[in-house]
Design goal:
The complex is a heterotrimer.
Chain A: H1 9-31, H2 37-56, H3 60-77, H4 85-106, H5 117-127, H6 131-145, E1 152-159, H7 170-178, E2 182-188, E3 206-212, H8 217-223, E4 231-237, H9 240-252, E5 259-262, H10 266-282, H11 299-323, H12 331-355, E6 357-359, H13 361-364, H14 367-378, E7 382-387, E8 392-394, H15 395-416, H16 420-425, E9 432-441, E10 444-451, H17 458-467, H18 479-484, H19 507-516, E11 520-526, E12 530-538, E13 543-551, E14 554-559, E15 563-567, E16 574-576, E17 582-586, E18 589-595, H20 596-599, E19 614-620, E20 623-629, E21 631-639, E22 653-658, E23 664-668, H21 670-684
Parallel strand pairs in A: 7-9, 14-23, 18-20
Antiparallel strand pairs in A: 1-3, 1-4, 2-3, 2-5, 6-8, 9-10, 10-12, 11-12, 13-14, 13-21, 15-19, 16-17, 17-18, 19-20, 22-23
Helix pairs in contact in A: 1-2, 1-4, 2-3, 3-4, 3-5, 11-12, 14-15, 15-19
Chain B: E1 3-7, H1 11-23, E2 27-31, H2 34-43, E3 48-52, H3 60-68, E4 78-83, H4 87-96, E5 100-104, H5 108-119
Parallel strand pairs in B: 1-2, 1-3, 3-4, 4-5
Chain C: H1 3-19, E1 20-28, E2 31-36, E3 40-45, E4 59-65, E5 68-74, H2 75-78, E6 91-98, E7 103-110, E8 112-120, E9 139-144, E10 149-153, H3 155-158, H4 161-165
Parallel strand pairs in C: 2-10, 5-7
Antiparallel strand pairs in C: 1-2, 1-8, 3-6, 4-5, 6-7, 9-10
């Protein structure tokens, strides 16, 4: 059968990398002195499955490497060997090495034969044996096996009573034998008890089998391999006389014996098999691993979906029946049916969205290792605390938030946490703390990276911003605004560009990446006490709850998550600021007003007087403003479509959606609009 | 043809076994560990079980023991996926009631010929 | 087969299979233009289009093409020709436009589609500097359709969204 194993590669890579991540965190936990046998078992399982998969899918170098690691882990697991600091360190290196091997294969590269050589050497030293002798042994064995060819075999096969209870069936074994050559079988039923005392689950028969075949003894032993310990098995080469003798005995005992005979053409079949095998293995490497990512879904989630689709189909067929010969007396049924349909559709949608959700731990799990390595390198003492790691968010978000988060954690370790001496001197514990936290808030996911380090130095940032020409010396900025400056393009707070954070990627890129995901980032910092970076991200990229608003003839959608309230303003709430811009007062706060018809150049039919329309107070990036619109229309869940697929990104818009009637509506980019509005407002002030 | 239950915590192995057996015309259901498999075995009706040994929650050996305790699966062939290095696992598996084993790594053809050995 | 016949056959084959391309021609303010037919994805009657703010005037807006959001350019407006009422011959031709990194789907509003032309590469002439209402930088050639001239439109240059957004 021509099965192309390549189709399973991507899944194998993904699960191997996932396994390595969890192995890494287990190793780190063990390093902390956590000596849990469950932990070691889990690590063993990871390496064991990678080895199995690598061997099966044709990555021999990975299989060979993990084999040695597995041997060591097996000894640890069974208690033969104690786990030492050195072994842990070596296993951590192993993780890196296997990861590199997997990633190289994933990207279609060739294996580096020297990769991991030193680790293997050290492992073998520990295991106290050399790999080369083992290889030679297996070679020798093979050549010995390749010899013999005779005329056939005489087999005596006496199953023990309980052999059947392992699901082995003598008939199947004879079938397999018959594929090796012509067999004749005789059975001795003398042990068979009377019917009333017979236990159907036990075996009472003894078999004598003659096989005429040039096959090796090994091939026969293979067939009985599974029952070796559950039977008495004798295999003797057949010579002509014995064959003669055997048939005479058979004839003599014929009355008591049952005879089975089978014929086949084994040689031909085997050759075909060999050919197929060759083509199978020869085909890998033809093209590099495909780029489509996959998602692992629990079968329970799939079952749930199938159930729902089932209900949907039932409702649909019910409506179909209703539609045939409909009259007004059935109106109520129709309405009920439609309500059902809506409910099922919504449930189905929610379930499907849940499939895209994965725990943030996929990203968080890389940090213990990173912080561990970094703090060692920098000579700092850092305790990384992680909470909320089971918080789920969209797979795409999880995949893309990794780099920005890595940058922020590096920053905290590199610039945030001080050296131990420095910390003691300022009365803090030597051990600094970096805390990663994730939780739900409204329709968003919040991820926080906080540290109890030095905090941002406003004076330094200000000076730097002045020298970089970002602000002028006369600018009076609040502490908050100064903190914001670090997100300005080309801004780096480090005095010296270290090789940890200073990799040419600034905080502006971090922000840009987060904004691209529809999220935003804010910072709270107190000099001497630490900083908190707070990222908020949409739960999912594909669907949002939208408020439809109208301005003139146009309709737009405002994400409900960003709406604080909608109000009708009274004239005394509004102030015109000299130059441009209007502000209104809301509970002591002055917020800019964005007239939507101006912002979007709506040509006609809009409401101009503030008192007659509606002000939608929205928040984005931690700042607020009021959007002036004509009317609030309905609210509904909308599926977000990208404008960029066929077009470009448009200022003030985050995407589009399609209404039930097929028309297109645009979704407002609230953070972008608020930023623009407040900046204009500040300029005006 | 026959109904097969494949038990393995590795998704790639499961996929490979499923695909191979399905291509040969068998019905296949997947389970991710012993506990899951036991549940599915009780609900379904399988002619062959192929199970990994090293799995979280319930390992293959325990799973085989549990299966042999079920009236419906007393004689059903159960094959364990083992590795050459774990020779003791084969014996342990046999003692628990496994029919036999397939040594990893194996090719789709090897899998099919082994399945044929017990399914006929 | 004689040598002469072979030569003749080759010539014919060459004409049919190698050098001839098909173009879809359309009408715009009493002039004729055409595009490579392989780039035409669909021809739609004029439907409602959602206007998009902060875009050039000639961008009619976006429409829903089986779930994809597709921008639509009004070619009359693009070349500052007189505005006319859209009527029943007005159509949107949906085209595949190649940009530096990807392929985008863009619609154009034209007065009417006329027909499909078979054009041999040898028949394509260079565009004279003056004459057409469409600037020559957006034309790649000129063919004759017996009764009138048809200009081949360089849609990758004309309809690249990043490029035409610069005209805002």
């Amino acid at each position: 059968m021509g099965i192309n194993l390549e189709q399973f590669h991507q899944v194998f890579f993904e699960e191997a990398l996932e396994g390595l991540d969890s192995m890494e965190s287990s190793m780190l936990a063990m390093e902390e002195g956590c000596d849990d046998s469950e932990e070691i078992n889990a690590v063993f399982r990871v390496i064991h499955s990678i080895k199995g998969g690598a061997g099966t899918f044709g990555f021999a170098h990975i299989a060979d490497f993990t084999h040695v690691v597995e041997t060591l882990l097996d000894q640890v697991r069974s208690g033969e060997r104690e786990i030492t600091k050195e072994i842990i360190a070596l296993l951590l290196k192993t993780v890196d090495c296997v990861r590199e091997m997997v990633e190289t294969s994933q990207s279609g590269g060739d294996a580096d034969p020297d990769l991991g050589k030193d680790i293997i050497e050290r492992l073998n030293q520990i295991l106290n044996k050399s790999t080369s002798s083992e290889a030679k042994e297996s070679l020798k064995q093979e050549s010995a096996e390749a010899e013999f060819a005779g005329i056939g075999w005489q087999i005596s096969f006496v199953p023990h009573k309980q052999m059947l209870q392992t699901g082995n069936d003598p008939v199947r074994m004879f079938q397999a034998l018959s594929e090796l050559g012509e067999i004749s079988t005789s059975v001795d039923i003398t042990e068979l008890p009377n019917l009333h005392s017979l236990q159907p689950e036990e075996s009472y028969l003894k078999w004598k089998i003659t096989i005429k075949s040039g096959c090796r003894e090994e091939s026969i032993r293979e067939i009985f391999e599974w029952v070796e310990d559950e039977c008495d098995l004798e295999i003797k080469p057949l010579n002509n006389e014995e064959q003669q003798e055997q048939s005479e005995i058979q004839e003599a005992e014929n009355k008591e014996l049952v005879r089975v005979e089978r014929r086949n053409d084994p040689e031909n079949d085997r050759r075909k098999d060999d050919d197929r095998r060759k083509t199978n293995y020869g085909r890998r490497k033809s093209d590099s691993a495909g780029g489509t990512s996959s998602i692992r879904v629990g079968t329970d989630k799939i079952d749930e979906l199938i159930n729902m689709v089932g209900e949907l189909v039932i409702t649909q067929s019910m409506l179909g029946v209703l539609g045939d010969g409909f009259d007004m007396s059935k109106l109520e049924d129709l309405q009920d049916g439609l309500t059902e349909l809506e409910r099922h559709t919504r449930q189905l949608q929610e379930s499907i969205m849940r499939i895209r959700m994965v725990p943030i731990n996929f990203v968080f799990s890389r940090f213990p290792r990173m912080v561990h390595d970094l703090s060692e390198k920098l000579g700092k003492k850092i305790d990384l605390r992680i909470s909320g790691e089971t918080t789920e968010l969209d797979k795409t978000v999880v995949e893309q938030i990794g780099d920005p988060l890595t940058h922020l954690v590096r920053n905290s370790v590199d610039h945030g946490i001080e050296m131990p001496e420095e910390r003691s001197a300022s009365g803090k514990p030597e051990m600094g703390e970096v805390h990663l936290n994730a939780y739900h808030k409204g329709g968003s996911i919040i991820i926080e990276i906080s540290d109890d380090g030095a905090g941002l130095n406003c004076e330094k940032i200000r000076n730097k911003a002045i020298s970089a020409g970002i602000i002028s010396e006369n600018d009076e900025l609040s502490e908050e605004r100064i903190h914001e400056l670090i997100f300005h393009p080309g801004f780096s707070t480090a005095d010296v560009v270290s090789d940890i954070s200073g990799r040419g990627v600034g905080m502006d890129v971090v922000r840009k990446n987060i904004v691209r995901l529809g999220g935003n980032i804010e910072i709270k910092s107190k000099q001497g006490h630490g900083s908190i970076f707070r990222i908020s991200l949409p739960l999912t990229l594909a669907i949002l709850d939208g408020q439809i608003i109208s301005v003139g003839k146009e309709k737009y959608i405002v994400p409900i998550a960003s709406i604080i309230e909608s109000i009708q303003v009274k004239p005394d709430m509004v102030n015109k600021v000299s130059g441009k811009g209007e502000v209104f007062e809301l509970r002591g706060e002055y917020l800019p007003i964005v007239r939507m018809h101006e912002f979007f150049e709506v040509e006609e039919g809009y409401i101009d007087e503030l008192e007659k329309g509606i002000l939608v107070v929205v928040e984005g990036d931690g700042r607020k403003c009021g959007l002036f619109v004509d009317l609030l229309l309905g609210q509904q869940q909308i599926v977000i479509k990208s404008l960029e697929t066929n077009f470009v990104r448009i200022q003030g818009l985050s995407g589009a959606t399609i209404f039930g009637d097929g028309s297109v509506a645009l979704i407002l980019d609230i953070p972008g609009m608020v930023r623009q509005a407040t900046e204009r407002h500040i300029e005006a002030v | 043809m026959s109904n097969v239950l494949i038990v393995d915590d590795s998704a790639s192995m499961r996929q490979m076994v499923t695909f191979t057996l399905k291509s040969a015309g068998h019905g296949v259901e997947e389970a991710v560990d012993g506990v899951d498999a036991l549940k599915k075995a009780k609900m379904g009706n399988f002619d062959l079980i192929v199970s990994d040994v090293n799995m979280p929650n319930m390992d293959g050996i325990t799973f085989v023991k549990e299966m042999r305790g079920l009236e419906a699966y007393k004689f059903t062939p159960i094959l364990l996926l083992t590795t050459e290095s774990a020779a003791d696992k084969k014996q342990e598996g046999k003692a628990a009631g496994a029919t036999g084993w397939i040594v990893k790594p194996f090719s789709p053809d090897q899998l099919l010929s082994t399945a044929k050995k017990v399914l006929g | 087969m004689t040598e002469v016949a072979e030569e003749q056959l080759n010539e014919e084959l060459g004409d049919v299979t190698i050098d001839e391309d098909q173009y879809l021609s359309f009408e715009l303010d009493e002039e004729y233009y055409c595009v490579d037919i392989l780039r035409v994805q669909e021809i739609l009657g004029y439907t409602d289009i959602t206007r998009v703010p902060n875009t050039p005037r000639f961008l009619s807006g976006v429409l829903n093409l089986r779930g994809a959001i597709v921008p639509v350019v009004d070619l009359r407006s693009r070349f500052s020709l007189d505005e006319v009422e859209y009527d029943k011959t007005t159509v949107i031709v949906v085209l595949a436009v190649k940009t530096m990194h990807s392929e985008k789907t863009v619609g154009i509003v034209v007065d009417a589609v006329s027909d499909v032309l078979n054009v041999s590469k040898n028949d394509i002439r260079t565009v004279p500097e003056t004459g057409a209402k469409v600037e020559t930088e957006f034309l790649t050639g000129l063919v004759s359709n017996g009764s009138h001239m048809v200009m081949i439109m360089d849609i990758d240059n004309l309809l690249n969204p990043e490029k035409f957004m610069e005209l805002l």
